[in-house]
Amino acid sequence: MSATYLPTLKQLQYLVALHDHGHFGRAADASFVTQSTLSAGLRELEMLLGVTLVERTRRVVRFTPLGESIADKARRVLREAEELGDMARASGRPLSGDLRMSVIPTIAPFILPRILPSLRERYPELRLFLREEPSAAACEGLHSGRTDCVLLALPYACGEVTVEPLFDDPLLVAFPTDDADPAPAAFKPQDIDETRLLMLEDGHCLTEHALAACNRPELRAEAQMLGTSLHTVVQMVDNGLGVTMLPEMALNAGILEHTRVEARPLDAPHASRQVALVWRRASPRERDFKLLATLLAESH
């Protein structure tokens, strides 16, 4: 086939935008074009391929099975095209240009305020775009090309990625200071009252790390998983509603300041999580990611 008849990157961008947003208007806004321009570009793509990719109705945008497959392939093609630019940037000054990093919510508020000022000072040509989201969404975004790298906590299965461990982050048990029973110097898993354990809601890997460290199935069954952020959980503990488990980085960042909450170490095997930076294997910006990982580790 002549290159003249190949789909254009712009057409593929329109297709992926529509797949992401499920709505022509929102997809057009995200692509910075009018809705008619986006719609015309997609019709040209369908005519070029000789297939229907999207079923259009007044209320619903529905991709055909082939449309789903082609949208997935288009996403990979766009990612490869972006990496052409990455290769050029990687040959120039380190940590310059745009870089998109996802950070999980149990890390972002505790490490970013420490690292961002020095990062701006040392690498003023870097434009770092941050996205706070749970591990599953962050890893999906990494493989789809929405994100360049992810700062998360291990163990977590993020697919085919390069992993750069940064540091271990111990887990501690936090409790109200006015609890009737005196607190031990360190909590053993059997010391934790499963009926009073407050944890982040499902989807946050910190909950899985903490429960795995305790190795008590009844904790998983009885714990109340209702917090949307560590700050919210700490407020519930401060109000005498129970106890929780916190990563050391949150304490170092002052999460317990102005509360009547104390924390003690968790005395158990593997009572920590490992903070790591991950990126797609064979990325042309690996040098940048390794340098960023070094800076993040130094900030700990």
Tally the helices.
Answer: 11
Q: Report how far the terminal alpha carbons are from each other.
A: 54 Å
> What would you call the structural class?
alpha/beta
Rounded to an integer in angstroms, the radius of gyration calculated over CA atoms is: 23 Å
Spatial shape: elongated
Average pLDDT level: 88
Annotated CATH homologous superfamily of the largest domain: Periplasmic binding protein-like II
CATH overall fold name of the largest domain: D-Maltodextrin-Binding Protein, domain 2
Low-confidence stretches: none
Per DSSP E runs of 2 or more residues, the count of β-strands stands at: 11
GO molecular function: DNA binding; DNA-binding transcription factor activity
Family: Belongs to the LysR transcriptional regulatory family.
Organism: Sphingomonas lenta
GO cellular component, one term: protein-DNA complex
How is this structure best described in words?
Helix 1 crosses helix 2 (24-31), helix 1 packs across helix 4 (65-90) and helix 2 (24-31) crosses helix 3. This protein has helices at residues 9-21, 24-31, 35-49, 65-90, 108-122, 135-144, 205-214, 217-222, 230-238, 248-252, 286-299; strands at residues 54-56, 61-63, 97-103, 126-132, 149-154, 161-176, 198-200, 224-227, 244-247, 261-265, 272-280. The chain has eleven helices and eleven strands. The model has no long low-confidence stretch (mean pLDDT 88). The protein has three domains: 3-87, Arc Repressor Mutant, subunit A (Orthogonal Bundle); 92-164 and 278-299, 3-Layer(aba) Sandwich (D-Maltodextrin-Binding Protein, domain 2); 167-273, D-Maltodextrin-Binding Protein, domain 2 (3-Layer(aba) Sandwich), CATH 3.40.190.10. With 300 residues, the chain is an alpha/beta fold.
